[in-house]
Amino acid sequence: MPETALPTARPAVPHELASGRILAILRGVGPEHLSAVRGPFPQIAVVPTGGVDDTNAAAYLRLGAVAVAAGSWLVPARSVDLSLEQLADRAARLWEAVDAVPVRGVG
Is the dihedral of CA 7, 29, 57, 91 positive or negative? Predict the structure, then answer.
């Protein structure tokens, strides 16, 4: 999936994606940026990546993200330094944060 912080700066992608009907990804920007993007581009389904963690995942969803990707926070590059219990704790904290957000339709 292509990654971009600005819909107007999206790389060349298949027609379905370029039409704005499927997905754009915000990488490493804060939840407040999502409102700015969704305003003029409400048809774009946004999935924030990079910088997503248990403290901001719910905010992204409340502001209109259809999902969040918290890969590097959930399993950091040095995850071998974390115990299985620590990894499970991170997953539980993330789940708790997003589970409180009501599910809604896209578009």
Answer: positive
